[in-house]
């Protein structure tokens, strides 16, 4: 088995907590990769021999980003909606229905080509693990198609049949929920690991959301929930009660939400691209972290509320406008995302973990926030293979 040594790393973020440094920072470090896994981590001066040696030139290495929230299987785009929003129009979840129409009209091959394009775009920006949701099909056949296509590119597939009520069920939403928890779940569960619901005014009520999540749990899926994006509500507490791995958005959190999250294993995944592109207020990550909540950062790549796939962009916003330190933001977008997906083999650079690493063209991870918009990703390894 051939081994690769990355050496002369000026600043290595391992995420293996060390002397109260959650990022487990090691200076003048080296990492040995073998068989797609991390084989050794330590001081460059003590590094073992290898078949191939990569000189990091004193620059920073971080774990590959773990983007735990995206909607990458869709047709069309909504640039005009974004333009109108920037001119003052409010974001409304109803826009989802126009993407549903474009998605239903697209062939499998069209959706697949687009999806693979997004995966490549993400790899080039350092994202090596991505979760993908369905939710732009909203019929049994179309939702099955979306989870099946998503499963071709990631094991982290989420069934989000309960994204919004499709137009044809507008006056009888409960019948749509019957469809979601019945035939749609039957068709989608074999391709999925997670069940999600958009629990929000204008999407699904708390009792409807509970039905969806409980049906998913009964089929062996683990919940994750979209909640408190457009206003405060009970979605966060429902997610905590049902043991969700993550509750996402959290733009409008009450003190009770924060208390419930802090006492739970549920991660709160913040999605700064959404507030950026909907002109909503940025959530206060400082308040959450200080209260003891585990926070992740993700892009929520989708054609409506957040059409960025750049974790560095989200990190820059989180540091500039949400009260996170650069170290916290980098942790949240790597180890935090891994927690949100209940994974311990990614988001960390430690022996046994997957060899998913990013070499930055920068001396420190701080540059991810300090140099916003600058392409700092120099090289990316996924499962030990240089993919960028
Ligand atoms: O995560 N909140 C609901 N779903 C997406 C938005 C989808 C859309 O606008 O197309 C989100 O923001
Ligand atoms: Fe989303």
Automatic annotation (TrEMBL):
Zn(2+) binds at residues 69, 71, 226, 300. It is an enzyme of class 3 (hydrolase). N-formimidoyl-L-glutamate binds at residues 136, 302, 304. InterPro entries: Amidohydro-rel, HutI, Metal-dep_hydrolase_composite, Metal_Hydrolase. 4-imidazolone-5-propanoate binds at residues 78, 136, 163, 229, 305. Its cofactor is Zn(2+); Fe(3+). SUPFAM superfamilies: Composite domain of metallo-dependent hydrolases, Metallo-dependent hydrolases. It catalyses: 4-imidazolone-5-propanoate + H2O = N-formimidoyl-L-glutamate. Its EC number is 3.5.2.7. Fe(3+) binds at residues 69, 71, 226, 300. Keywords: Cytoplasm, Histidine metabolism, Hydrolase, Iron, Metal-binding, Zinc. It holds the Pfam family Amidohydro_1. One of its GO terms (molecular function) is imidazolonepropionase activity. Binds 1 zinc or iron ion per subunit. It is found in: Cytoplasm. Residues 61-369 form the Amidohydrolase-related domain. Pathway: Amino-acid degradation; L-histidine degradation into L-glutamate; N-formimidoyl-L-glutamate from L-histidine: step 3/3. PANTHER family: IMIDAZOLONEPROPIONASE, IMIDAZOLONEPROPIONASE-RELATED. Catalyzes the hydrolytic cleavage of the carbon-nitrogen bond in imidazolone-5-propanoate to yield N-formimidoyl-L-glutamate. It is the third step in the universal histidine degradation pathway. Belongs to the metallo-dependent hydrolases superfamily. HutI family. This is Imidazolonepropionase. It comes from Microbacterium luteolum (Aureobacterium luteolum).
């Amino acid at each position: 088995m051939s081994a690769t040594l990355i050496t002369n790393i000026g600043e290595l973020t391992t995420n293996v907590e060390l002397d109260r440094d959650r990022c487990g920072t090691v200076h003048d470090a080296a990492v040995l990769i073998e068989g797609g896994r991390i084989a050794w981590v330590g001081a460059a001066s003590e590094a073992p021999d290898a078949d191939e040696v990569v000189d990091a030139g004193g620059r920073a290495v971080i774990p590959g980003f773990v983007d735990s929230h995206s909607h990458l299987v869709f047709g069309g785009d909504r640039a005009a909606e974004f333009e109108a929003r920037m001119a003052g129009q409010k974001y409304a979840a109803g826009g989802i229905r126009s993407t549903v129409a474009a998605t239903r009209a697209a062939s499998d091959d069209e959706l697949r080509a687009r999806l693979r394009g997004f995966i490549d775009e993400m790899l080039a920006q350092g994202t090596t693990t991505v979760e993908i949701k369905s939710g732009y099909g909203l019929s049994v056949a179309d939702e099955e198609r979306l989870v099946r296509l998503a499963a071709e590119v990631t094991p982290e597939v989420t069934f989000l049949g309960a994204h919004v009520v499709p137009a044809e069920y507008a006056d009888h939403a409960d019948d749509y929920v019957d469809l979601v928890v019945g035939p749609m779940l039957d068709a989608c569960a074999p391709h999925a690991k997670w069940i999600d619901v958009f629990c929000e005014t204008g999407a699904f009520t708390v009792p409807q959301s509970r039905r969806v999540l409980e049906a998913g749990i009964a089929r062996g899926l683990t919940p994750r929930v979209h909640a408190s994006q457009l206003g405060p509500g009970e979605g966060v507490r429902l997610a905590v009660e049902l043991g969700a791995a993550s509750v996402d958005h959290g733009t409008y959190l009450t003190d009770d939400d924060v208390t419930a999250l802090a006492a739970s294993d549920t991660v709160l995944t913040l999605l700064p691209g959404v507030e950026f592109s909907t002109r909503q207020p940025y959530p206060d990550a400082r308040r959450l972290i200080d209260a003891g909540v585990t926070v992740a950062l993700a892009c929520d790549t989708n054609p409506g509320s957040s059409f960025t796939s750049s974790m560095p962009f989200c990190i820059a916003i989180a540091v500039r406008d949400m009260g996170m330190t650069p170290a916290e933001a980098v942790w949240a977008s790597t180890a935090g995302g891994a927690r949100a997906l209940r994974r311990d083999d990614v988001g960390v650079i430690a022996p046994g973990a997957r060899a998913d690493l990013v070499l930055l063209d920068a001396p420190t991870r701080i540059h991810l926030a300090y140099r916003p918009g600058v392409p700092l990703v120099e090289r990316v390894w996924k499962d030990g293979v240089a993919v960028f």
